[in-house]
Write a structure and sequence with these properties.
By secondary structure, the protein is α+β, with helices and mostly antiparallel strands. The protein is about 35% helix and about 25% strand. Helix 2 packs across helix 6 (about 170-190).
């Protein structure tokens, strides 16, 4: 009798497959309070890689890290009417502390535009203080009614950038720079996830923003996932919090502000963009463990000794490795577990192969096993990892493009969105087209130019709407 699959097949039930991976690859579990999550060590190590890569790009774009309080006076949020209206259903509010009712309720941070705006107003005096480019890595709380681990949780981890600029053009330019040079570059070249970039329609913008730019990725079930956003906030927050400066002529001017962020939602995107019926597949550049040195069998300790030496050599050559010498557990079980976790390479070390001066390299992306001479292992492993990185991006891009259709009517867009994305002229959705699609859970993910770049306005001639079902 054939063994039942470890995971529910994607084609049979994609949401169940996703849940299976979270549990069986030991990535995350539900927390004790509904909507919260516990991120397990293996997943958190991948998140740390994401943090390091994104943080380096943020710093290269000129922003500096800071930290602001988790608790925000409720009055701060009420200063910006659109903002508080947009977040009201999601707010967690503390009314008691230290056994007493608070004089003023405090909000558990849903995002930090308001509290950071309060301090920007103190720190900015002159045009010489601009631009002020800040970022923080933190947790936020947005009370989620329909939680799903990594995708929508009441508490999640993220970075949030908050900047003040002297001019509208400078603010718009920086928001676009973050979108492309930080988020898109990271998602494409590290996560190996191709993304469409575009402009959110007014109904989908961040609360209080004048423009929201987005990165939209296709998951393996054809649905869209918003991976990151960058917002132009105009002068809305500057006006509410008196964020201003004295210009070169000694006159008082209001700043233009921006904010931008990515979160642990990227972990969900990584799983759903690359995973297969055997488990997770982690692109090498973001993998916390790029290769596991797996002892097949060892009766006297000699194989494990060689495996340790191989591990040291791989580590010295820059490969992030782990040793698995738990030979008391069957080799097949251990190999399956590492496959489930998506480790890019397994270096299988057994007495028979060592007797011939070689090991076997098993690739997670293709399942191929290739013999490798011991003397060539370090060079071969590094080369295969780079080949895998590029190959996973190409596969994801090819799959996405094959399921992205140019259409001209709402009926065609509806049909295309049953399996992927549709690009439809923005004018074709006038007169109720958005509402017609919404009845079938299809939304406008963003507006693009006819050539596929960012639309520069909500009514740009020739603009195209990217539509899809989404998470």
């Amino acid at each position: 009798m054939a063994k039942p699959p470890i995971l529910t097949p994607q084609a049979e039930d994609f949401p169940r497959w996703y849940q299976d991976i979270l549990t069986k690859a030991q990535l995350a579990e539900n927390g004790p309070v509904r909507g919260t999550m516990v991120i397990r060590p293996y997943a958190y190590a991948i998140w740390e890689r994401m943090v390091a890569e994104v943080d380096a790009r943020i710093k290269a774009a000129g922003a500096e890290n800071a930290y602001f309080p988790l608790f925000i006076p409720e009055s701060y949020l009420k200063k910006e009417a659109q903002h508080v209206e947009g977040f009201s259903p999601e707010l967690a509010i503390v009314t008691h502390g230290g056994g007493k009712e608070l004089d003023e309720p405090v909000v558990v941070r849903p995002t930090s535009e308001t509290v950071i705006g309060e301090y920007m107003s103190k720190w900015i005096q002159s045009y010489r203080d601009l631009p002020l480019l800040l970022n923080q890595w933190a947790n936020v709380v947005r009370w989620e009614l329909r939680p799903r681990l990594f995708l929508r949780t009441s508490e999640f981890l993220w970075q949030e950038g908050h900047c003040a600029h002297a001019t509208e053009d400078d603010a718009a330019s920086y928001a676009a720079r973050i979108l492309h040079e930080v988020y898109e570059e990271f998602m494409v070249n590290v996560l190996a996830i191709p993304v469409f970039t575009g402009r959110k329609i007014p109904q989908e913008r961040f609360a209080g923003a004048t423009n929201t730019l987005t990165c939209e990725a296709m998951m393996r079930d054809g649905k869209a996932l918003q991976m990151g956003t960058s917002h132009e906030l105009g002068q809305n927050f500057a006006r509410a919090f008196d964020i201003g400066y004295q210009d070169e002529h000694g006159e008082r001017q209001l700043c233009w502000t921006t904010s931008w962020g990515v979160s642990t939602r990227m972990m969900g995107g990584l799983i759903m963009a690359h995973g297969d019926d055997a488990g997770l597949r982690v692109p090498p550049r973001v993998a916390a463990v790029q290769a596991v040195v797996l002892v097949v069998k060892d009766e006297d300790g000699s194989v494990t000794q060689v495996a340790r030496e191989l591990l040291d050599g791989l580590t010295e050559s820059g490969v992030r490795c782990r040793l698995d010498a738990q030979v008391a557990t069957g080799f097949g079980r251990r190999a399956t577990d590492w496959e489930l976790k998506g480790v890019p390479l397994r270096i299988e070390v057994g007495p028979r192969d060592l007797g011939e001066g070689r090991v076997v390299i098993a690739r997670r992306d293709t399942g191929e096993k290739v013999p490798c001479e011991l003397s060539e292992l370090n060079i071969r492993a590094a080369a295969i990892l780079e080949e895998m990185q590029l190959g996973m991006l190409e596969q994801a891009r090819s799959d996405r493009d094959a399921r992205t259709f140019e259409v001209s009517s709402i009926a065609e867009a509806r049909e295309a969105a049953s399996t992927g994305f549709a690009r439809i002229p923005w004018t074709a959705l006038a007169d109720g087209g958005i509402d017609q699609l919404a009845k079938e859970a299809i939304t406008v993910r963003c507006l693009q130019s006819a050539e596929g770049g960012l639309a520069q306005s909500d009514d740009e001639p020739g603009a195209v709407a990217l539509v899809a079902r989404s998470y």
